[in-house]
Amino acid sequence: MEWGGGEKWHLEMANHLHSKGNSVLIITQPGSALGKRALSLGISVHYLKLNNLSILNPLKIISLVMLFKRQQVESIVLNLSRDLKCGGIAAKIAGVNKIIFRRGSDRPVRNYFINRLLYQKVVTGILTNSNATKTAILSNGVSLVSPDKITVIPNGIDTLSFIDRPFNCVREKNGGLFTIAALGRLEPQKNFEFLILVAKELKKRHISFRILIGGKGTQEKFLRSLVSENNLEKEIEFLGFFENPKDLLMCADIFLLPSLWEGFGYVVVEASLSCLPVIAFDTSSNAELIDKSTGFLTEPNKVKPFSDKIEYLYLNPKERIAIGKAGQAFVRKNFDSKLIFQCIEEYLLS
Fold first, then answer.
1. For residue 27, which of 61, 77, 95 has the smallest C-alpha distance?
2. Domains, in order of start, for the chain
3. HSE value, Cβ hemisphere, 13 Å, CA-based, for 117
C-alpha cells in the first residue's frame, strides 16, 4: 500500500513502455498508491489482493492464469516473494514467455526447496538493481540459482527533468545554520534513530546545525519521543512525506543516509542531483552510488567517524560545493533513465 523505491521503479518503467506503444498492465493491491498513479497516467490496472498464503488458493491462481491468457501476456515482472509464488506459478501455467523476478532488496534469499523450485523452474530470469543485490542472492550458494540467470541493471532517473523541476523550500536557508537533510520511510531499516546519536555528538562539538527529516512510517512516534528525551527539539524536525523531494533537498547543505541496507538508494541519486554531498554507511549498494568525489562512506552505526565527515563538510564549504557538483555529474553519467530504461526495455522485450 505504501510508496517507495519499488513502486517508483514499476511506475516509471511501465510509463516508459506505455509511451513507446507497448501494451502494459499493472497488477497491484486494491487502493494502492501505485494503482492510483498508474491510472492517472492512462496505464491499465488490475486489482488483486494477495498475501503469502495465496499460493494455497487455487482460485487465485486460476484467475491469474485466465487473466494472463486473456491479456496475451508475453513478459511479466514480479516484485515480491508473494507475487513470485502465486503470480509466477500462474504465469508458468499460462505459458508466459518471460517470467522475471525483480529483486530490489539487498537481503539474502533462503535456500529453501520452494525458492530453488521457483528460481530454477519458474522464473526465466532475475533482474537486480545493483551488484550488491546480486551478491546477496548468491550468498547462500549457487545451488539456489545460477549466476548466469541474474542480470544487473541499476535504477534510472530522468536527470534533466529532476534538475529542472520547480520546488518550494520547506525551510529558508540560513547562512549561519548548517542544514542537514535525511529522507525515507520511518522504519527500522532506515535507522533514523542513529541520527539522534549523531545530533548529540554534533552538539558536543558546538556545531550550529539542524536536521530536517522527511518521511512517514511506523517509527515516527518512537523517534519523536527520542528527540524529546534528548532535548533535541531545536536541532531535529520531522516534516512528513514529500511528494517533491526537492522541497526538502534544496534547502539543505548535505544529505545523510543512515540506512542499514538499500537495494538501490533513489534518495542518494536525488540528493546528488540536488548537488548535495552524501554521507552513508559503507554497506549494500551505497559504494555503487557514492564514490570518493561525491561523498563519504563510513562503517555502519559508528557515530564518531560519521560525525567527523559531517564536521569536515561543515568546516569546508568550498569543498562541500565541489563534492555536490561532482555528485550531480556522476549521477547524470551513470544513472540517466534514457539509457537505463532502454536497457530494461531490451531485456524485457527481446
1. 77
2. 50-156+336-349 (3.40.50.2000), 160-334 (3.40.50.2000)
3. 9
Q: With CA atoms as reference, report the closest residue to 97 among 347, 339, 308, 321.
A: 347
Are 152 and 308 in contact, with CB atoms under 8 Å apart?
A: no
What's the chain's Rg over C-alpha atoms? 21
In terms of DSSP H, where are the helices of 108-150? 113-117, 131-137
| Rounded Cα distance, 343 and 320, in Å | 34
Higher pLDDT, residue 320 or 104: 320
Whose cell is 519458474? That residue is: 122
Our CA dihedral for 211, 215, 216, 220, rounded to 10 degrees, sits at -20
DSSP states along 282-324? S-TTHHHH--TTTEEEE-TT-HHHHHHHHHHHHH-HHHHHHHH
Predicted TM-score (pTM) of the model is 0.83
> Is residue 277 a contact partner of residue 324, using CB atoms and an 8 Å limit?
yes
DSSP-based three-state secondary structure for 144: coil
Q: Which residue is listed with cell 506503444?
A: 21
Residue 29 has pLDDT above 90, yes or no: yes
Q: Which residues of 188-200 are buried (b: 16+ CB within 10 A; e: fewer)?
A: eebbbbbbbbbbe
> What's the pLDDT tens digit per position in 137-182?
998 888 999 999 999 999 999 999 999 999 999 998 777 799 999 9
How far apart CA 323 and CA 331 sit, in angstroms, is 12
Distance CA 188, CA 181 (A): 18
pLDDT tens readout for residues 52-75: 899 899 999 999 999 999 999 999
What cell numbers appear for 33 in the block?
498508491
Q: What is the mean pLDDT of residues 289-302?
A: 96
CA nearest 158: which of 50, 305, 16, 324? Answer: 16
Residue 213's pLDDT band, with cuts at 50, 70 and 90, is very high
- Give the C-alpha separation, 133 to 265, whole Å: 12
Question: What's the grid cell of residue 98?
Answer: 518471460
The DSSP output letter for 203 is H
